[in-house]
Write a structure and sequence with these properties.
The structure holds two protein chains of two kinds. By secondary structure, chain A is α/β, with parallel strands linked by helices. Chain A contains seven helices and twelve strands. By secondary structure, chain B is α/β, with parallel strands linked by helices. Chain B is about 15% helix and about 50% strand. In chain B, the strands form three sheets. A ten-stranded mixed beta sheet of chain B has the order 4-3-7-9-11-13-16-18-20-22. In chain B, strands 5, 6, 8, 10, 12, 14, 15, 17, 19 and 21 form a ten-stranded mixed beta sheet that branches. Chains A and B meet through α2, β7 and α3 of A and α4 and α5 of B.
């Protein structure tokens, strides 16, 4: 479904990703791990086409279309969707206005109120987007937008950070639904960045990947990888992966 | 083209003038120096020409030059003449008039239009006024508008002024407002169309526990100079002022001024100037000023000028909006200030201005 080939990306002239290769099949969910600054957010932003992240080498193929040079809105129309870690605050642009666009895109016009209630964002509909939202509210708003957009491939940048215990189950079940994790035959795929791995208590993933210094360092069972990271730290985990490969 | 009193009705609609007694509690139209019509459709409201008002009440003349000085500048001097006209709008004591009064000042020929308006909201009254100022496409000249507002004890006056001139008109409003104890004055100013020059600095004198709010949305097109500010003098304890401006330069020059003067115990004021500069030819100068003349005042300001953030455009594009749609949503959001009772057609005018802007980007 999504194929990343030798992808190199720069941010403000600094190389962040080096020849990253990744292949996510239909129905698969990847969990993306790595220390701060390893390039996790860069990878997701490059896939969605954030102009601040400059592709300097390689290609990205989504549903057999080379999306490397497509503007973001066209990638989104092809079926990509992303929830951001720190989305901008936009004064005067109401959450409801954005949700209406998302719902139109996903054919979910009738579901705005129902889903806003589910994500506990109904009271925020007429507020400027992200202005004065708490960390958890930002994340719930991001997931709500994605639910309405109903993308085929979902990019989630730390959907669990800042979400309190009371809401993590709500966010988790929404993401599970987005990725069709409960279904046997899945059409959807996605990549979840998670720092602590909390979200994986609610959302199952098929593979875990460690990005380390801008390179893919490990691919394996996500639960094993978390256990390794907790036991040996990222460096220990990466060293073990390299040893296994030998 | 349909006309009323020799004025294009589309032009009138653009500045909120409808001549519809169901939607308006009173109406007034002045073309050059001549008052064409005035009427009140509600018993708590008086709407008439200033000349008729002086004939009806001998006290009206006492309200002349009460808040402004005749010799303030060459324009006030010029307005202080025999042939001055204008409107007199008054809400009777305790009258609560939700439906707005409309007043239009129209510049048709070449020359100067001189206006002196008196607005009185008597004690405990509430009134909402929409003033539309506009001109004929071929008119060349100047509009000098002196306005004195008296918002008496516990009254509330909402005054929305919409300017829609042409690029050969110079506009010099001179306004002052007395906001008595417990009263509220809300001013909204909208300028979206070309004009040669607008220069104004209305002042509100705010009494005990009274409140003044000035909001303005200004778009300066190429060739326009707009020097517009609002000033609030917080004269007595508990007075509150808020000045909010949103200015967009599409090639024109804007001075966005604001001044709050705190003169008494426990007064509060906040000033917010935000500018968006969309053309390399444009210029925005934000000049917020706070003056404290008492130790226990709370005055603050924020001023910010910038272009549209790429990050915001990208974010909206990630929700499927095209670049154009994202830019218009952000500009619309930037210009969004709460204006109660804004006529539908005016919302459409704002939308049209945004569409224009989008194509210029």
């Amino acid at each position: 479904m999504l194929r990343i080939v030798n992808l190199s990306v720069e941010v403000e002239g600094k190389r962040i990703l080096h020849n990253v290769n990744l292949y996510v099949k239909k129905g698969e969910t990847f969990a993306l791990f790595g220390p701060n600054g390893s390039g996790k957010s860069t990878l997701l932003n490059a896939i969605i086409g954030n102009p601040a992240y400059k592709v300097v080498g390689g290609r990205m193929i989504f549903k057999k279309v080379d999306i490397t040079n497509l503007p973001t809105d066209e990638r989104v129309k092809l079926g990509l969707g992303m929830s951001f870690q720190n989305p901008p605050k936009i004064n005067g642009v109401k959450l409801i206005d954005i949700l209406s666009h998302c719902a139109k895109l996903g054919g979910n016009e009738g579901k705005i109120i129902e889903l806003a209630e589910k994500l506990r964002m109904k009271d925020h509909l007429h507020r400027s987007i992200n202005v004065g939202f708490s960390g958890g509210e930002v994340k719930r708003s991001e997931i709500l937008q994605l639910l309405l957009m109903n993308p085929d491939f979902v990019l989630l940048d730390e959907p669990d950070s800042g979400v309190d215990l009371e809401n993590i189950a709500i966010v988790g079940s929404a993401i599970s639904e987005l990725l069709e994790r409960e279904k046997k035959e899945r059409e959807k795929g996605g990549i979840i960045i998670t720092h602590q791995g909390h979200i994986l208590d609610y959302v199952s993933a098929d593979y875990g990947v460690i990005l380390y210094k801008g390179r893919v360092a490990c691919v394996g069972d996500p639960k094993d990888i978390i256990a390794q990271i907790r036991k040996n730290g990222y460096e220990g985990c990466v060293a073990r992966c390299l040893k296994d490969m030998e | 083209m349909s006309e009323r009193y020799g004025v294009d009705t589309e032009k009138l609609k653009e500045v909120g003038i409808e001549f519809d007694p169901k939607k308006r509690s009173g109406t007034f139209l002045q073309k050059d120096q001549e008052v064409q019509t005035f009427a009140s459709f509600y018993e708590g409201v008086e709407v008439m020409s200033i000349k008729s008002a002086m004939e009806k009440y001998d006290w009206v003349k006492d309200y002349f030059w009460k808040l402004l000085r005749r010799d303030q500048d060459e324009f006030t001097k010029e307005a202080d003449s025999e042939d001055v006209n204008g409107y007199f709008i008054r809400a009777m004591p305790n009258a609560k008039v939700e439906i707005p009064v409309e007043a239009c000042l129209y510049l048709h020929r070449t020359g100067k239009q001189k206006v002196h308006n008196i607005v009185i909201a008597e004690e405990n009254s509430e009134i909402n006024i929409i003033t539309g100022c506009t001109s004929h496409p071929t008119a060349i000249g100047m509009h000098i508008g002196v306005s004195e507002f008296f918002v008496k004890k516990n009254a509330k006056l909402t005054f929305t002024m919409i300017h829609s001139w042409q690029n050969n008109i110079e506009v010099r409003p001179r306004s002052a407002v007395m906001v008595e104890d417990g009263a509220t004055y809300i001013s909204n100013y909208i300028l979206l169309n070309p004009v040669k020059l607008v220069q104004m600095y209305p002042t509100a004198y705010v009494g005990k526990n009274a409140r003044a709010v000035f909001s303005s949305v200004i778009v300066a097109l190429e060739g326009c100079t707009i020097d517009s500010g609002s000033r609030a003098v917080l004269k007595e304890s508990g007075a509150v002022a808020e000045i909010i401006s949103r200015t967009i330069s599409r090639g024109g020059k804007v001075y966005a001024r604001g001044q709050i003067i705190g003169e008494a115990e426990g007064v509060k004021g906040h000033l917010e100037c935000k500018g968006l500069i969309l053309s390399e030819k444009g210029e925005i100068v934000a000049i917020p000023e706070l003056i404290a003349r008492h130790p226990n005042v709370e005055l603050s300001h924020e001023a910010a000028i910038g272009k549209i953030a790429e990050e915001e455009i990208f974010y909206l594009m990630s929700r499927g909006l095209s670049r154009d749609q994202a830019v218009s949503a952000i500009v619309r959001g930037f210009m969004e200030i709460e204006i109660k009772g804004l006529p539908e057609v005016l919302k459409a005018t704002i939308d049209r201005a945004i569409e224009d802007m989008k194509s210029a980007l």
